[in-house]
Write the structure tokens for this entry.
Amino acid sequence: MTTPSASDMTTPSASDRTGLRVDGLVAGYDGLAVVRDVTIDVARGEIVAILGPNGAGKTTLLTTIAGLLSPIAGRVMIDGADLSGLAPHRVSRRGITLVPDDRGVLFDLSVGENLTLDAGTAVRDRAVELFPELDPLLDRRAGLLSGGEQQMLAIGRAVARRPAMLLIDEMSHGLAPIVVERILPVLRAAADAGSCGILVVEQHVGHALALADRAVVLSHGRTVLEGSCAAFRADTDAITRAYLGGAPGR
């Protein structure tokens, strides 16, 4: 069986689509590259999963797209507009929302306050519609929630803001399977509505392949494999081979 690759599916050029374009991105810390020459497209209405072992550069990739790190080289674009080097709040205003691996919840505020802090009651109401489990928790301090409830709060708030591009780091980390089963269809529905693209970092390969349209595998900061999730599901060993075979400079 052949290994999936970018040729397994047709990927429109950036000029033919709206959404996120990461072009030749080099990013890292104190001038030391962690992400090396990564190019990724995510269209509105599409979910792309970023896979790879620990230290592959997945979180660095997302934080650079969100403007928390400035690229060393390369570009980040949304709907054709170059965001490279913009401050995080300006990136956010262009429609890019990040759910970080620590969920970004304000522990000392109530669930309701977390949902209305910067966007008003409309976001709160939409988030509760997405996750009705949050409704009886609106007056509870977010720091008293379980990990699953915090993740529903974080993702519900992010989706309810109706971003152009949603970035999620470590979507299922530390969550019970029943919580993951609640979150996956919410994300799929958000993408299928057509106005939102999603780029998700996920350690659990099964969850990623069940959710996403395409997957990209990083190793040592470089793309070592990419293709459709349908192709990866047909060759379940391809990602394992990529994890084991990635090497610096590849």
